[in-house]
């Protein structure tokens, strides 16, 4: 009977766990809808801003007065990586994939003799990288207490990066995050922020800037003045986009992980119930045999 008691306790425990995973799946699904809408709404603006600055910057990239955020320091020795991950776990391999991508990138840069500095956004990324690369950390940013991400959080990270750039603390800045592809697919990606990527110069510096669709634009004030205003804003926008993409990917990964956990719990309950019934039947059969044997002996 002790085995039956243990099986009943195990079945009750797994059922309680299944209720928790079902609730977490429903919460993640509800949050995913809003996060996905935000991420998809931010993409066109961020991509258009990036293309416009690339086209605009191509005309002034070779100028000695070009903004530092556009052309960088002119060196390629110190790399700053902004690693964006989730604040919580129970999301499958979501955080591990981004952390592994960042780890491999750090090792690749250091193998080339580069100096690497790291800013982590999200507690899981900091936890994953701290053991091997804690000495490279510049700052650990966490928004665990923030219910809904806003542009202010991204602007704060961008302000830190801008201050480091003005102080000459790095040469190249890149963003690493999980790009939201679909509910079941989040792809680790790297995006270079500083220096901004610009098309190769055409050789005609006097020509107006051309957009990706072939239209020609004349800017007033000049390109340098516009870039001084737009580049910091673009930095915040790209960080904000990464935060939204990461948030949508996290909830998608968590929903799938909790769905799998719920299914596994159901399978385990079925197996434990079958084992419980078999054990109980075996005990009943044993008791009947003992009674019949005793009656036959009398």
Automatic annotation (TrEMBL):
InterPro entries registered for this protein in UniProt: ATP_synth_F1_ATPase_gsu, ATP_synth_F1_gsu, ATP_synth_F1_gsu_CS
Localization per record: Cell membrane; Membrane
Keywords tagged on the record: ATP synthesis, Cell membrane, CF(1), Hydrogen ion transport, Ion transport, Membrane, Transport
Any one GO molecular-function label of the UniProt entry: proton-transporting ATP synthase activity, rotational mechanism
Pfam families (UniProt xref): ATP-synt (PF00231)
Topological category with respect to the lipid bilayer: Peripheral membrane protein
A Gene Ontology BP annotation from the UniProt entry: proton motive force-driven plasma membrane ATP synthesis
Quaternary data: F-type ATPases have 2 components, CF(1) - the catalytic core - and CF(0) - the membrane proton channel. CF(1) has five subunits: alpha(3), beta(3), gamma(1), delta(1), epsilon(1). CF(0) has three main subunits: a, b and c.
PANTHER family: ATP SYNTHASE GAMMA CHAIN, ATP SYNTHASE SUBUNIT GAMMA, MITOCHONDRIAL
UniProt-recorded name of the protein: ATP synthase gamma chain
Protein's organism: Roseomonas mucosa
Gene of this entry: atpG_2
């Amino acid at each position: 009977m002790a085995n039956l008691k243990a099986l009943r306790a195990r079945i009750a425990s797994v059922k309680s766990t299944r209720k928790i995973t079902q609730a977490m799946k429903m919460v993640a699904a509800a949050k995913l809808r809003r996060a996905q809408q935000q991420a998809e709404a931010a993409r066109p603006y961020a991509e258009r801003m990036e293309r416009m600055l690339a086209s605009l910057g191509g005309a002034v990239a070779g100028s000695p007065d070009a903004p530092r955020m556009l052309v960088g320091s002119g060196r390629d020795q110190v790399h700053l990586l902004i690693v964006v991950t989730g604040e919580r776990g129970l999301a499958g391999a979501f955080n591990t994939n981004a952390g592994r991508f960042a780890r491999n990138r750090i090792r690749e840069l250091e193998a080339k003799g580069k100096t690497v500095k790291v800013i982590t956004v999200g507690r899981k990324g900091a936890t994953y990288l701290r053991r091997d690369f804690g000495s490279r950390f510049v700052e650990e940013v966490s928004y665990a207490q923030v219910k809904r991400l806003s542009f202010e959080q991204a602007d704060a990270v961008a302000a830190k990066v801008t201050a480091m750039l003005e102080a000459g603390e790095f040469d190249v800045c890149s963003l690493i995050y999980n790009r939201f592809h679909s509910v079941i697919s989040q792809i680790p990606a790297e995006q270079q922020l500083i220096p901004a990527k610009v098309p190769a110069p055409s050789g005609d510096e006097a020509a107006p800037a051309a957009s990706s669709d072939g239209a020609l634009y004349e800017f007033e004030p000049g390109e340098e003045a516009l870039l001084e205003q737009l580049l910091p804003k673009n930095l915040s926008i790209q960080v904000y986009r990464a935060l939204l993409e990461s948030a949508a990917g996290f909830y998608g990964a968590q929903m799938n992980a909790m769905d799998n956990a719920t299914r596994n719990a159901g399978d385990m309950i079925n197996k434990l119930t079958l084992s419980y019934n078999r054990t109980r039947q075996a005990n009943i059969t044993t008791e009947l045999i003992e009674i019949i044997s005793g009656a036959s002996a009398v």
